[in-house]
Backbone:
């Protein structure tokens, strides 16, 4: 029974299952009618803004570095022993996160 849990076998089982569910859903959807509204973009009924919401990549990289430090720091802490040597590392992660928050 454990062979079903291996990724190649599970993949071969799930593909036909997905195709069956897809064909049932496609049958329930009904026929489509081609028209102008089907081929035009939908922008939620509002006019598209003419200005950039966040110029440059600086805000993105600050958030990306924050989560990289947070996740990698927790990963390193979780794989190590729990003792007093962990405190300086935890303090360093905290200071790095504060520095990234302040920008």
Residues:
């Amino acid at each position: 029974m454990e062979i079903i849990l291996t990724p190649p076998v599970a993949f071969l089982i799930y593909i036909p299952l997905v195709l069956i569910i897809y064909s049932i859903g496609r049958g329930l959807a009904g026929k489509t009618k081609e028209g102008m509204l089907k081929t035009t973009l939908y922008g939620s009924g509002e006019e598209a803004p003419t200005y950039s919401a966040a110029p440059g990549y600086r805000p993105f990289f600050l958030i990306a570095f924050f989560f990289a430090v947070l996740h990698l720091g927790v990963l390193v802490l979780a794989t190590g022993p729990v003792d007093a040597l962990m405190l300086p590392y935890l303090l360093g992660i905290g200071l790095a996160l504060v520095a990234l928050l302040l920008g």
